[in-house]
Amino acid sequence: MRYVQDELRRLGFQPGQQQLYVTTTLDYAKQQMAEADINANLDNQRWRDTSGQLHSAMVAIDPKTADIIAMVGSDNYDSPAGEFNYTYDVSRNTGSSMKVWTYSAALNTRKVTTESLIVDGPNPLHVPQPAAPDYIVYNYTHGTYGTLPLREAWDNSLNIPAVKTELTIGTPTVVQFMRTVGMYPEAPVNGTMDPNAPLSNYGPALTLGGYPVKLVDEAHGLATIANMGVYHDLEAVLTVKDAHGRLLYQSNPDASRKQAVDPGVTFVAAQVLSDNFNRRTLFGLNSKLHWPDRTVAAKTGTSDDFKDDVSLAFTPDLATVFWIGDTLGNDHVMVRGQGVPGDRWYTQPSDVVRGDPATQPHAWFLADQRNVARLPGSETPTPTPAPALVGVPPDPSVGPLAAPTPKPSPTPCPLPKHC
Q: How many CA atoms lie within 13 A of 287 on its CB side?
């Protein structure tokens, strides 16, 4: 409700002071399904946080229009801290899900390809920071896995290669790419977190989720990738009429339509994230990131303090973000999980699109008639990349460094009296 009211205000209306008849973009059947999924997911995960305050939320967007078709801000409004819409009111640290944007931004610069080799080391990785301690990076397992092509480092969610890739293209480049697709991570500005902070305020922790972001924004970014790089403004309101039935507003997705990212980049990103074989090293084959009945691109993320787990999934017909996390305070965390919220998230993409006649089991990024032969800027024939562009990105000690930034603070507690 708050999200719709805020959108009405952005459109120039005064909800609460005008008598308005509003039709939203929510799909009632899919909204009911999402609410059931959230509660089933939470029940399956309560063992991870028996003494804390566990909540779950999700948002789903139609990539073709950026219409919000389902939004569950909280599992139980009447529970402690349940009155918050965790997809919109409160930004969260979304962990390694941010690697989607780091690697997509890197592909967009053409400084790397999916076959670029990256050394997973040293362990730990020390990133020097002027006037601050080194930023120290470990993989989730605290192990290393040799030299891998970028696509495998990405799909296995290895932290050290991801930070190396971020430093190779520069942290500001990643932030700019995120903003282009509709994502606005928050960085500190004069003691407050600002989604429009100067680029110099972001540091290498960005790619591991060190800067919080609204879940609805992350889903918006996914929708842009899922729509072959075509951006639309987020929409929650279809029509607005007055008390006499006169039409005051009607949404028009084409009004904000723009090609934000070259479709070649989105093609490669979606191909990587839907390839079950790429993630075999850490996730194994046929994990919960692989759907047997349709092609789905997916990624997970866990915050360093294990307060947040996020899972992303997209098809051409659906971009969805699932979140589960502890909200009691910074001294309460979840038991380390597998980075996947639960069985209902696993079935949800198929459940949502099943029965829609326009949907297909195989996504555009694997359909021959929609393939993208080469990345933007390629000539015919495609030139052989220079060794410096496809070799191992430089270690941070000798390569380009991100701008200095304070160590990101933990996600603020939405209810201080409970912290």
A: 23
Which of 206, 214, 201 minimizes the C-alpha distance to 177? Answer: 206
Q: What angle do CA 182, 188, 192 make, to 5 degrees?
A: 100
The string of DSSP codes covering 40-73 is HHHHHHGGGGTTS-EEEEEEEEETTTTEEEEEE-
pLDDT in tens, 114-139: 999 999 999 999 999 888 899 999 99
Residue pLDDT, tens place only, 391-419:
445 554 444 444 444 444 455 554 545 44
> What is the C-alpha to C-alpha distance for residues 311 and 146, in angstroms, rounded to an integer?
26
- What residues contact 34, with CB distance under 8 A and at least 6 apart? 58, 60, 70, 71, 72, 348
**Residue 333 neighbours by CB under 8 Å, 6+ apart:** 49, 52, 305, 306, 307, 326
**Structure token digits, residue 304:** 């360093």
The domains of the chain are located at 26-234+258-418
Q: How many CA atoms, within 13 angstroms, populate the side-chain half-sphere of residue 21?
A: 7
Please report, to the nearest 10 degrees, the dihedral formed by the alpha carbons of residues 64, 69, 73, 77 taken in order: 170
Work out the average pLDDT over 293-319: 86
373 exposed, middle or buried (CB, 10 Å; 0-12, 13-18, 19+)?
Answer: exposed
Q: Class for domain 26-234+258-418, per CATH? A: alpha beta
Q: Is the peptide bond before 381 cis (omega within 30 degrees of 0)?
A: yes
